[in-house]
Amino acid sequence: MIGWLAVTSLMMGIFPVATTEILPIGLLAPIGGTFGVSDGTAGLMMTLPGILAAVAAPIVTVATGRTDRRVMLCVLMLVLALADVLAAAAPSYWVILVSRALAGLVIGGFWPIGASLASRLMPEGQVGRATAVIFSAVPLGSVLGVPAGVFIGDLAGWRTAFITMGILTLT
């Protein structure tokens, strides 16, 4: 029972990571309009975290190898919430890029840790099912989280969508 609670908790952590990662896709035009940048330039909000995640994954994994994984996941969630709040409060486009860089570091750190935990949390016969539950958060973030964020952005502004993600990340 405790193992499944941990698996569910991990899934609930991956949901805001996946949603924050791709949320700007639906908000490129309003964000770009706020800061007077083209849609192409606004698209750097997607490119930058992807590149940083690829670079950060091995570095964060090695650098934090002796740190308790639970502590690392909590720290990464706090950094993700900070990145979302920073994006919401950004006075300029460059500040948003800083927030997206932080998100990229979180993505790069969270995936290697999260991917390895199912085998540690569950007995051998349940690892496959636990892994499927953990990573079900990725399509849920794409199919539920992003459209909900864009809906919030349409109703109350893109900054509210990022504040909402920051709050969701902390819960």
Automatic annotation (TrEMBL):
Keywords: Cell membrane, Membrane, Transmembrane, Transmembrane helix. The chain crosses the membrane at residues 44-64, 71-90, 96-118, 130-152. It is a multi-pass membrane protein. Pfam families: MFS_1. One of its GO terms (molecular function) is transmembrane transporter activity. It is found in: Cell membrane. This is Major facilitator superfamily (MFS) profile domain-containing protein.
